[in-house]
Amino acid sequence: MITIELKGQLIWCVDKKKTIPIETFEGNLKDLIILLRLPESEIGMILVNQKKEPLSYCVKDNDHIIIVPVVGGG
Amino acid sequence: MTYGIMGKILEVDLTSKAIGYRTSDITVFKKYLGGSGVAAKILMDEFDLGVDPLSPENPLIFMNGLLTGLPVPTGAKSSFVAKSPLTGIWNESTVGGHWGAQVKKCGLDGMIMTGKSETPVYIWINDDCVEIRDASALMGLDVFETSDKVKAMTDAKAVVACIGPAGENLSKIAGIMIGGNETRAAGRGGLGAVMGSKNIKAIVAKGTKSANVYSRESLRDLLKDFLPILNANAKSLHDFGTAGGVQGVEANGDLPIKNWTLGDWAEGAEKTCGQNMDYLGITVSHHACYACSIRCGKDARVDIGPYKGAIGHGPEYETCAAFGANILNDNIEYLVAANDICNRMGLDVICAGNATAMAMECFERGVIDKVDTEGIDLTWGNGPSILDFLLKLAKKEGIGAIFGDGVKDAGDKLGGLAKEFAIHVKGLSVAFHDPRAFTSMAVGYATSNRGGCHLENLSYFCESGAFPPGIFGFNKPLSKHSDENKAELSVIMQNLMNVYNALGLCKFLIRGKTNPETIATWINAVTGWDMTGEDLMVTGERLHNIKRLYNNSMGISRKDDHLPPRLQYHDRRTGAAAGILPNMTKLLTEYYNIRGWDNEGIPTPERLDFLDLTTI
Ligand code: SF4
Which one of A10, B22, B45, B347 has the largest count of C-beta atoms within 10 Å of its C-beta? Predict the structure, then answer.
C-alpha cells in the first residue's frame, strides 16, 4: 500500500481528493503521475517519506508520497 | 528599410497643445531594445529628474517593446514610464491587452506626453491623424463607462487607455487601465495619477499599419516547434488564469495571509482560486492579449455588490491574494466584486489590497476606529466593508483620505504602530509572493528599481520549478532553507526580465521554458540583426543599471535596499515556509559584488564602462 498526498491545485485533477491510497503499484514516480493524470508541468517537487526524489525513483511498498505543485500566479 | 519598429515617436505637449514627432533612433533601439529601456534612455538624456512627479514637468512616456504588435508569442506588452508619485523614483508599468499593438498600427513606437492641459482632454490617435479633444463629458466616469463612451465618440474598434476616478483624484495608487471591461492595467506606481495630473482622461488609438518583418518565413519556422511546448506547459494558465495558482502558492508558503503574518490557509485558498471560480460558473469566458495563444484572461460574473450582474475581467492571482488570503476573506463573490471595483475605479489591486489589509490590522489594533471609517466595520474578511472601503479609497474620501495614497503614506499619517503594518519597499506595496518562501525574492524586492515589484525578477518561478534555471545555464543548487546562490539567481533573472519588458514580451512566456538564445533568434528574424542570447543578457544588465542610475540620482542607495521589518525579521510559525527568514546582509553583499556595484549600491565606473553607460 502506498499513500499519495496532493498539495495545492493538483487536487482538482482527481476530484478534489487530497489523499489517495493505492493498494499495489509497480513503477516509478513518472508512471505514478501518468496513472493519476497529473500534469507534469505543474509539479514542482515530489517528496517520498519526506525526502525529495526525482521522477525516476522506483516506488516501494509503504511509501508516503507528497506531490507539491509549482508556484504559478502572476 | 526599418524592421520591427515603426520609426516614429509621437510628442504631445499638453500645455501648448502642440503635436509633433521624432524619428525613432535605431541605434538606441539596438542598445536598449525598446519599451522601458528606450524610455529610460530618453528620460535620462532629456529631462530633469528632480521634478515633482505630479507637476507638468514630469513627462509621461509610453513606449512599445521591440516585438510588441508583431507575430511573436505574447508580443503584447508595452510600458508606461514616469517618475512615480508613489515612490518618487523610477517607475515603469507594463500592460498587455491590445493597446501596444494598436499604437503600433498607428505607425508609432511610443508617445512622450509633457505639460498639463488646463481642461480635461483625451488624445485621439486615428492612424496618422492626432487630435487633442475635450474630455469634459468623460469626467467622473469609471473605466468601463469611459471606454464605452469614448469609443462611441471616436471609433467602435479603437483601443482605449484611460484613468478612472482614482486617477482623476490623483490617488498615488491609481493605474492606467486598458481595454474597458476586458481590463488590463498599467497598475503599479501611480501612473494613473501622473496621467490625471496632466488632465488626460483617455488616450484612444485606431490604426491600419503593420511593421516590416525581416523574414516572416524564418519567424514562422522558429515558432512552429515552440508554440506547442508553450501551450502544453501553460495549460493551467489557459484553463484557470493566474488565479489557478493560488493553492500552489499557498502550498509553497508563498501566499501572504492576514497582512503577511500567517503561514497557511489551505481551505481558504481552495475557495478563492481560479479552479473554484470555474467550478462555480463565475468564470464565463476566456480572452487573450495580442498574439498570445495562452489566453490567460478570464471574464467573471459579478454576483454581489453595487455592480451585481456585470461581467468584466476576472480576478487574477494578485487580486485573489489581495482580497482573499491577505484579508482573510474566503467569500469568492466579494473577492470578484472587489476586483471589479478596482478595475472600474482604476486602482492598482496590489496597492489597494495591501492598503485594505493594513487598514484592517489598524482597525483590529485600535489605531483607527469606526469614527475614522465612518461606520465601515473593517474586521478581517468582512466582504461588504471591503467594497465600501475601496470606493472610499478611489475617491480619497473619509478613510480613503488616509489610505488612498498607499500604505507608506498611510503609515506616515497614522504614525507609530501603523508603520509596522505598511508592507512596502521604497513606497511600493510588496506584490503577493512572500520573500520568506523563496529568498531570492527577498534580494529581488529590495533591489527592484521600482520598489516592491515581483515581476522584476520573478525568481519564485525558478525556485519552485516552474522555470528551471538550468534552461539559462544556471545549475547551482537552490534550497528553500538556504540563501546560497540566491543573489546570483536574482541578478540573472532581473537582467532577463528587463529584456522581456524592453521587448514587450509577457512574463508567462517563460512557461515555454524560453531561454535568451531562443528569444534572440526571434529578434533576428524580425530585425535582420545578429544578436545572441549573451548579447541580450548584457543588454538586460545595461537596462537594470540605467534605471539604477536614475534611482541613484534620486538618492537611492544601500540604505533603501531593504524589506519591511515584517518580512525581514518576523518568521512564520506554520506552513511550508515556516521559520524561514532571508539573511539580507549576505544577500545584498553578494548581490552588489555580482552586479559590480560598490558597498553602497552604486554601479562602479568599470561596470558602467563594460555596459557602455559612461555617458549617462
Ligand atoms: S499570458 Fe495572459 S497576460 Fe500574458 S500575453 Fe497571454 S493573455 Fe496576456
Answer: B347
Q: How far is A36 from chain B (nearest CA, A)?
A: 16
β partners of residue B10 = B21, B111
B506 lines ligand 1 (CB under 6 A): yes
CB contact (8 A) between residue B248 and residue A73: yes
Measured in Å, residue B69 CA sits from the centre of ligand 1 at: 13
- The answer to whether B432 faces chain A, any CB pair under 8 Å, is yes
Digit-coded pLDDT (tens) for B290-342? 999 999 999 999 999 999 999 999 999 999 999 999 999 999 999 999 999 99
Among chain A residues, CA nearest to B269: A8
Q: Give the Cα-Cα-Cα angle B251, B186, B200 (nearest 5 degrees).
A: 155
* Residue B77 burial class via C-beta count within 10 angstroms: exposed 0-12, middle 13-18, buried 19 and up: buried
Q: Chain B within 8 Å of A22 (Cβ-Cβ)?
A: no
Q: Is residue B106 in contact with ligand 1, taking CB distance under 6 Å?
A: no
Q: Is the CB of B292 under 6 A from ligand 1?
A: yes
Closest by Cβ to A9, choosing from B244, B460, B576: B244
Smallest Cβ distance to A71: which of B233, B248, B508?
B248
Beta carbons of B242 and A74 less than 8 Å apart? yes
Measured distance CA(B174)–CA(B163) in Å, rounded: 8
**Considering only CA atoms, which of A31, A25, A26, A69 is closest in space to residue A47?**
A69
Q: Which domains does chain B show, CATH number per domain?
A: 8-206 (3.60.9.10), 235-419 (1.10.569.10), 440-610 (1.10.599.10)
**B43, B449 Cβ separation under 8 angstroms:** no
CATH architecture label of A2-69: Roll (3.10)
Q: Chain B: nearest CA to A1, how far in angstroms?
A: 25
State whether residue A19 sits within 8 Å of chain B by CB: no
Q: Which of B253, B276, B279, B275 is nearest to B265 (CA)?
A: B253
Query: Which among B408, B476, B439, B399 has a CA at the least distance from the CA of B172?
Result: B408
Interface predicted TM-score (ipTM): 0.91
Whether the full predicted model's pTM is greater than 0.90, yes or no, is yes
Nearest-angstrom CA–CA distance, B100 and B103: 5
How many other β-carbons are positioned within 10 Å of the β-carbon of residue B546? 24
Kindly report the protein residue whose alpha carbon is nearest to atom 6 of ligand 1. Answer: B292
Q: Tell me the average confidence (pLDDT) per consecutive run of 10 residues in chain B, 616 residues long.
A: 96 98 97 98 97 98 98 98 98 98 98 98 98 98 98 98 98 97 96 98 98 97 95 94 97 97 98 98 96 96 97 97 98 98 98 98 98 98 97 97 98 97 98 98 98 96 92 94 97 98 97 95 98 98 98 98 97 97 98 98 98 92
Q: Which of B251, B316, B455 sits opposite A69 (nearest CB)?
A: B251
Locate B118 and state its grid cell. 488646463
